[in-house]
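sry for the spam today, last one i promise. struct tokens for design, 338 residues
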């Protein structure tokens, strides 16, 4: 079956006729949902069922950003309001075992809610390590300002999702925490020495290099490439992400529609693939932009296809659990922290 190496968004809470035709013809590897696509549990489930029907792949990846805190597409009253990572970090610093358990529980409960509406990939955890003076686009989305703490907490976050039958996506490789700008709006440039990056920003990603999927950072690291952000830099992807960090899993670009990237959508797409991204991500549901991305997106073949298969092979069936007991335990842990 011919599959193209991109992930697409859709515009509304239900697919338009044009989207149905486009998705059927182009057959993207996966899809991503945002708040604009969310109204109720039944509606989201109907949307993901339709996307699966069009793809004719039961395990087609359907992604979402469900981190907790301010980055959470499924919100009350229909879904739980989960904690930002920084609050989980506070529990961890008071009691490491309790903190790691709280992280696992939150991810496990997130996975329960995602699977119930047909979502099987969560863009979590954030492995970025903020520093003083950095832009707050990461901020409380990070577990800690200490790289080893981020790594220690990110592991149970991944494991909780996997226990619930949801694939984690580590982000934003090789690190967005030091950026002084929001890559949604402009291109951040990091001038930090390579040796410093290696023992700070890069450390959590090296510790979780066995995870199935990673998402790139639209950040320039002048120590390696002063012209191109990681997403479009062959030097950063091949030498740093694949080499120094040892990441061998499926590599997604961050959203091509973010303003950190330059050029039209054909150019952005071609640059990301030329640099070494396996899959490109286009999120905003704009049909004309999606058509431009799809036009120059290759079929999923070769090493990228192998990595995609290995990632989906890691997608387990959810383990049985007592949801009421898990929620009670999580409530008790977070109450103690408060």
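last one done:
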């Amino acid at each position: 079956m011919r599959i193209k190496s991109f992930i697409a968004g859709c515009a509304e809470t239900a697919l338009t006729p044009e989207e149905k035709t486009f998705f059927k013809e182009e057959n993207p590897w996966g899809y991503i949902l945002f708040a604009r696509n969310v109204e109720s549990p039944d509606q989201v489930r109907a949307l993901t069922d339709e996307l699966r029907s069009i793809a004719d792949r039961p395990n087609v990846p359907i992604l979402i950003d469900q981190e907790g805190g301010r980055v959470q597409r499924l919100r009350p009253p229909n879904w739980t309001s989960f904690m930002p990572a920084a609050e989980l970090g506070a529990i961890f610093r008071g009691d490491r075992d309790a903190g790691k358990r709280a992280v696992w529980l939150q991810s496990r409960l997130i996975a329960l809610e995602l699977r119930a509406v047909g979502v099987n990939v969560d863009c979590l955890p954030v492995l970025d390590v903020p520093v003083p003076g950095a832009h707050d686009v990461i901020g409380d989305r990070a577990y800690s300002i200490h790289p080893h703490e981020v790594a220690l907490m990110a592991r149970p976050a991944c494991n909780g999702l996997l226990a619930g039958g949801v694939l984690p996506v580590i982000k934003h490789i090789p690190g967005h925490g030091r950026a002084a700008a929001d890559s949604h709006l402009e291109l951040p440039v990091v001038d930090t020495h390579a040796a410093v990056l290696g023992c700070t920003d890069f450390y959590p990603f090296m510790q979780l290099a066995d995870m199935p999927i990673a998402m790139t950072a639209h950040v320039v690291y002048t120590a390696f490439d002063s012209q191109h952000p990681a997403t479009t830099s062959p030097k950063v992807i091949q030498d740093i992400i694949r080499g120094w960090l040892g990441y061998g899993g499926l590599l997604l670009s961050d959203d091509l529609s973010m303003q950190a990237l330059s050029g039209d959508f054909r150019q952005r797409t071609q640059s990301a693939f030329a640099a070494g991204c396996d899959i490109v991500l286009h999120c905003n549901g704009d049909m004309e932009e999606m058509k431009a991305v799809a036009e120059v997106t290759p079929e999923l073949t070769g090493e990228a296809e192998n990595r995609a298969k290995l990632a989906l092979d890691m997608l387990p069936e959810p383990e049985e659990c007592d949801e009421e007991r898990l929620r009670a335990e999580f409530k008790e842990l977070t109450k103690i922290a408060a």
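The first strand starts at residue 4 and ends at 9. ok im logging off now
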